[in-house]
Amino acid sequence: MMICERDDFSLTGPLHLTTIDWANEHHRRSVAGSLVQGIYVAERDRQLQREGPELALSPIWSEFFHFRLIRKLVDDADNSIFGGIYEYKPPQPLSQTVKSLELSPRFVVAFRGTVTKVDSISRDIEHDIHVIRNGLHTTTRFEIAIQAVRNIVASVGGSNVWLAGHSLGASMALLTGKTIARTGVFPECFAFNPPFLSAPIEKIKDKRIKHGIRIAGSVITAGLALAKKATQQYSQNDRASPATPDPFTALSDWFPRLYINPGDHLCSEYIGYFEHRSKMEEIGIGFVERVATQHSLGGMLLGGKEPVHLIPSSVLTVNLSSSRDFKQAHGIHQWWREDQKFETKVYQYK
């Protein structure tokens, strides 16, 4: 049987991580990415009928780091594996320091992105469209995912649970994370190449033009949002009902980790989304952006729910190394490679 190189841990996995320092960002990112890749490979194992210890390629992606896949999250329509729950079972005696171990997760819930194979492609694309239309929360995959995450958080606490996903799976990780965070529990979230649905402004080379377009967009979006809010408040006053608290601000203390490649047009707008906020503050109109950043112009015109990709705070890591093509820029393997140059910034919504 022909084995795809990207599925083979011995060829493309982070073999250099023989000991994990849970305080090390590169180690944490690499482990989270590998567990997500394990879900991709688990689905390809299923499709190619690679079963048992001799044929299955997915177990090593987690077992190398002492994680065990204890439950597969399965789509109720096509039986594809779209996610999984891993449990961390460190060896005895421990080679890690106690402080490092305290930063490790007890469970990781990981979600894969789109698999371009006939057995799952139609269902995956259906969910990609739900992301575009801000409707991921209406899917059965989300129901399965959020129930699994709620159960684990209730059992071991949010600080012991990580969420991780790539591409479509990053949207699922962010949506489940936002839902849990609104209850006051802030799980660690690793979102690799999360889709940001917007015009590709980040591709514009002239910084002044780019900044001008973003300011205009912010003013229009903020204006529409304030008009909509005023209409809602007028309606609430008619019914004498109390105004609901701002759900966006309530998430400002949650810092999901976003991993972005500028060469990936599906996620690169996150760079401008957060940088633009800082620039608006610098020129004295931060209040406009504080309103605009909570809303998607497309989302308001569609009249839908708050888009998954809009988040108040984050730890944003950008891969500054050049990619040969979109496939490499959007791929998950870049996030554990040692030859890549990363830059990380923390953005807090105030």
Question: What is the topological layout?
Answer:
Layout: H1 9-12, H2 25-47, H3 52-55, H4 59-63, E1 67-74, E2 81-88, H5 98-102, E3 107-111, H6 121-132, H7 140-156, E4 161-166, H8 168-181, E5 188-192, H9 207-239, E6 257-260, H10 269-282, H11 286-292, H12 297-302, E7 314-319, H13 326-330, E8 342-347
Q: Outline of this structure?
A:
This protein has 350 residues and is of the alpha/beta class. It is built from 13 helices and eight strands.
Structural class: alpha/beta
| Broad shape | globular
Mind summarizing the main beta sheet?
8 strands, mixed
Radius of gyration: 21 Å
Termini distance? Answer: 55 Å
Strand order of the largest sheet: 1-2-3-4-5-6-7-8
Q: Determine the number of helices (DSSP H or I, runs of at least 4 residues).
A: 13
Describe the oligomeric state of these chains in a short phrase: single chain
Helical content band: 40-55%
Beta-strand fraction estimate: 5-15%
Number of E strands = 8
Mean pLDDT: 82
